[in-house]
Write a structure and sequence with these properties.
The chain has about 450 residues and is α/β, with parallel strands linked by helices. The chain has 2 domains: about 250 residues, FAD/NAD(P)-binding domain (3-Layer(bba) Sandwich); about 150 residues, FAD/NAD(P)-binding domain, CATH 3.50.50. About 25% of the residues lie in helices and about 25% in strands. The strands form 6 sheets. Strands 1, 2, 3, 6, 7, 8, 9 and 20 form an 8-stranded mixed β-sheet that branches. Helix 1 runs parallel beside helix 9. It starts with a strand and ends in a 6-residue tail after the last helix. Bound molecules: flavin-adenine dinucleotide. The site of flavin-adenine dinucleotide (FAD) has 38 residues, from helix 1, helix 2, helix 9 and strand 21. Its cofactor is FAD. InterPro entries: FAD/NAD-bd_sf, FAD/NAD-binding_dom, Sulphide_quinone_reductase.
Length: about 450
């Protein structure tokens, strides 16, 4: 692709008088075309750019990403529990994006898939031969009445944002007595286990601090189940019953009243029924959606606003030169970084084949995983496919709370992410799983 740069420079110089003045009117239209354009430099975008920029060489791949920092979001569960700091979870974007890819530090604001172009918020048009969309999920905190104001007051936190995750641990430390409430919204979310992981961590924290008998712990979830996969849901029901945690299914947080420290939940089966509950601590998982910019491009998305890709090949249903990876896609599996890892290898193979004019043939099995941290030293490692069948790496019952799995989550997964996945080397545990099961697993 040939870069085009048009620079018009008009200089009018007055040579009259004792001083000379220069007037420049400059119109710069940067228009560059790339072999591969990647939108979003998060887990999926960064890994994809690493693979393809090393294969295609410098100047062929660009990543459009506005953020200064890249965060390893799964660590925020531990940050909220005081086991890691927010600083531990992030690195400057400049350090993690691949050196051979151009970084366009802008937001995508428009798509033109028929003409292979996107627009960024500084007015640039960027052309591409192939496009990978990895824009993640948008957090819609403002859809809960009173919540933005409530974040300004004590006791309200959310592990889902770097802005509010430190407030979770502050709320835990300052807890005296009363209700500790944990919510799960009425939308798809990333890491569906995270809203309850922090609840188990909090319960253990209260015990360690001698405050457990002063805390009433309640989980309010919009879902009709505690967890989507029965094997792990059964194990979690045991945990909540043993630890005397109250579960309220089909209840959605709709309002927070910071002045009276009350949370209002709607009964989704009887929408007129609202329940107002006092809180000493409230952990909010916000409603989420595909990013507005994507939702607004009807040619690219399904009815729910997610990028319309083939769930097995990750290729767009209507534009064969467009692929998707991660949370912003319509792939019907739980949205996690582990799923992104599993998709990486499929995307690498299928995009390569498409670049050679061939048909995609690699198939994504829907692998996803959720390390369900149940305290300061235990974890249930849920791993499953897009049909809800367990797809476990280890040859033992992973529905059991284990210390080993906790250390894998806390100590092994971060380096696997930073060094392996973001550099394009980690494509999920498929081969480890096969080896562990002596070749008998999928
Ligand atoms: C609290 C919490 C706990 C989690 N726990 C786990 C876990 O234990 N295990 C696990 O596997 N996963 C976990 N996850 C989920 C995991 O972090 C995500 O599923 C994963 O990051 C998704 O990758 P992605 O590339 O799709 O999106 P992201 O990594 O979110 O990246 C999206 C990128 O797109 C950029 N972007 C957005 N809009 C634009 C725009 N208009 N233009 C350009 N760029 C844009 C963003 O800045 C961002 O960098 C957790 C997440 C959270 C928040």
């Amino acid at each position: 692709m040939i870069p085009q740069k048009t620079v018009q420079l008009l200089a009018v110089q007055s040579l009259k008088g004792t001083s000379s003045k220069a007037f420049f009117s400059t119109t710069v239209t940067n228009h560059k075309d790339y072999k591969l354009l990647v939108l979003g430099g998060g887990a999926g975008g960064c890994a994809t750019a690493a693979k393809f920029s090393s294969k295609l060489g410098a100047g062929k791949v660009a990543v459009v990403e506005p953020a200064d920092m890249h965060y390893y979001q799964p660590m925020w569960t531990l940050v909220g529990g005081g086991m890691k700091t927010l600083e531990n979870s992030g690195k400057p974007m400049s350090q993690v994006l691949p050196k051979k890819a151009d970084w366009i530090k802008q937001k995508v604001v428009g798509f033109d898939p028929k003409n292979n172009k996107v627009t960024t918020d500084d007015g640039q048009e960027i052309g591409y031969e192939f496009l990978v969309i990895a824009l993640g999920l948008q957090l819609n905190y403002n859809q809960i009445k009173g919540l933005p104001e409530a974040f300004e007051t004590p006791g309200v936190g959310s592990n889902y944002s770097p802005l509010y995750v430190n407030k979770t641990f502050e709320s835990l430390k300052n807890f005296k007595e009363g209700n500790a409430l944990f919510s799960f919204p009425n939308t798809p979310v990333k890491c569906a286990g995270a809203p309850q992981k922090i609840m188990y961590i909090s319960e253990e924290y209260f015990r360690k601090q001698g405050k457990r008998d002063k805390a009433n712990i309640e989980y309010y979830t919009s879902l009709p189940v505690l967890f989507g996969i029965k094997k792990y849901a059964d194990a979690l029901w045991k945990v909540v019953n043993e630890r005397k945690i109250n579960i309220n299914l089909r209840h959605n947080l709709v309002e927070v009243k910071p002045d009276s420290r009350e949370a209002v939940f709607q009964n989704l089966d009887k929408p007129d029924e609202l329940r107002t509950v006092k809180y000493e601590m409230l952990h909010v998982t916000p409603p989420m959606s595909a990013p507005d910019v994507l939702k607004n491009c009807s040619a690219l998305v399904n009815e729910a606003g997610f990028l319309k890709v083939n769930k097995e090949t990750l290729q767009h249903e209507d534009f064969p030169n467009i692929f998707g990876i991660g949370d912003c896609t319509s792939v019907p599996t739980a949205k996690t970084a582990a799923a992104v890892a599993g998709q990486c290898g499929v995307l690498r193979k299928n995009l390569n084949l498409t670049m050679q004019g061939k048909k995609p043939e690699s198939i994504y099995d829907g692998y996803t995983s959720c390390p369900l941290v149940t305290g300061y030293s235990t974890c249930i490692l849920a791993e499953f496919d897009m049909n809800g069948n367990p797809l476990e790496t280890f040859p033992f019952n992973q529905a059991k709370e284990r210390r080993t799995m906790f250390h894998m989550k806390k100590d092994m997964m971060p380096p696997m992410y930073w060094l392996g996945m973001l550099n394009g080397y980690w494509e999920g545990p498929k081969y480890v799983r096969k080896a562990m099961h002596l070749g008998l697993s999928k």
